[in-house]
Amino acid sequence: MAKDFARMEDSNPSANPTIHEVSDPSRRVFVRGGMAAAVAGLFGPLAAGTLAGCATTGGSGNVSGLGRAIGFKSVPMAAVDTVVVPEGYSTQVLYRWGDPTGIAGAMPAFKTDGSNTAEEQALQAGMHHDGMAFFPLEGSNRGLLVLNHEYVDDGLLHPDGMKTWTPEKVRKSMNAHGVSVIELQRDSAGKWTQLAPSRFARRVTALTPMTLTGPAAGHAMLRTAADPSGTQVLGTFNNCANGHTPWGTYLTCEENFADYFEGTDTPDAHQKRWGIKKGNGAKYRWHEHEARFDVSKHPNESNRYGWVVEIDPQDPTSTPRKRTALGRAAHEGAATALTNDGRAVIYMGEDSRFEYIYKFVSRDAVKPGGAAANRDLLDHGTLYVARFDVDGTGEWLPLVQGKGGLVADKGFTTQGDVLIKARQASDLLGATKMDRPEWTTVDPLTKEVYCTLTNNSNRGGAGQPFMDAANPRSNNTMGQIIRWKETGDLDATKFAWNHLVLAGDPKQSRYEAQGNIKGDTFGSPDGLMVDARGVLWIETDVSTSTLGKGEYANLPNNQMLACDPTKGEIRRFLLGPAGCEITGLTATPDLRTLFINIQHPGEPANERSDPERPLAVSKWPDGAGRPRSATIAITKNDGGVIGT
């Protein structure tokens, strides 16, 4: 989701962690360029390239002998209104906002003037496609694609935008959020078709009934007049990044939920810490016709959002489950891997200024038998928050009631208190405040973990947290990618870390904006995935108010890049159309198709389109009507593996 720097949530008033503050000149030099030597003894080969571009990793591997090497010619940066890929590659638009999802007997066509009804929108692709995952049904040739619909542009969603406002418009907006499950098939020529109708087709929206599970379920802070049990919730929204589990389920993450709730003139400390304040509701105006989004009337409703939601894509009748054991946050992603003994480990970022990176380790090992056999797996385990120390090591701090000061007289009487108030608990433990931690990914070959820190222009500002080892630049407009390796198995509580790269443009005059990229320039890294052969794919989310301006003057469009960690090279693979974000990232098991999402093409600098001039910024993908977020498939013309 594109975000204007000036409007980014910053609701962390805590002064922690003083141990990381870089306040004297000698320590500033250490953070700025001298950490490589300190970490080298801890990391071995991984540390060799710290702060020196996309560095050599501590392991190697290949898929069918192909290795990590990048084999395409870089795409030059340009201001374009189309999708640009390297020579020898093709793209195919698959699933646009308003396309029928494929539910039998209910496949309304998209109306280019925005006049589809709320009921029709509930049967069509939602707006603003984001994170997604491919679930194979027949190898790499047929499968389910599950994708998020993060938010909406009401200027495009309705014929007259928000000039008039009705309950119908609110319902349509709610139905344009959530998740789609669609079925795809690839033919012998490598072309993809959406199978419709499909018995798997499903839309999950902001009105879909869901169940709260885990330690916080039933907590007093989750109970409302409509749900005195504190276990039944209507809907999910602002679904940004995602994850998928080894047992075949999809994890969708609720991010900027605070934007939907109209706060009070006098918010309490808890509401302030979560960014719930007066004026929030003006962005989507749901509270005007859905009273549960008015905090003065329903003070607990906002606590029921900000969770990771598990969905079984192969059972369209199943009830999505909000897994409270994973903690509440402005969740960005949920990258999942397994310990050596088969337990699930989930890495999660929280995309807000000065918030945290989390890890969840399940109590039990994954069982054979798919979703049914692992129905309760994510309800039991330990949640941790990360502290990054100045010497290149770090520690996972357990968010467990009764430990580390998380006790009753500090407001944490039960584990439910800790999970619902995960930010406050992390403040108390002294976790490291990060520069907007977004997507996470785990290298399947080395088990190194990567996280994008998109940007934080408030870093080092007056009254704001100073730079620290993990976040070493003031007025950090460009962002960085941090990585770590656990000391032992993935359930370890200690790790060693460094920066893969500091994003930036070497042509900029300000040192903090130059970065240290070895290869093509970029800023504001967001989407992230290490594929099966070890190539790291990086997507960018520069806000539409910033593209082509100031320190982004040489970067007019968002992009996707590939990194070969063994050579320290970053190469531009794709450009998106005007006003879009590049997001959503998944591949077929054979790596011969890469799926990505083009989010909000045509978005203006104020992030809301003029309904009288819907094509003012972009005409992608149809050339007429309205710009439409869409999923695209990328294939190599010779049928080969993407990126080789």
Automatic annotation (TrEMBL):
Residues 1-21, 602-628 are annotated as: Disordered. Residues 1-10 have a biased composition (Basic and acidic residues). The lineage of its organism: Bacteria, Pseudomonadati, Pseudomonadota, Betaproteobacteria, Burkholderiales. It comes from Variovorax gossypii. This is PhoX family phosphatase. InterPro entries: PhoX, TAT_signal.
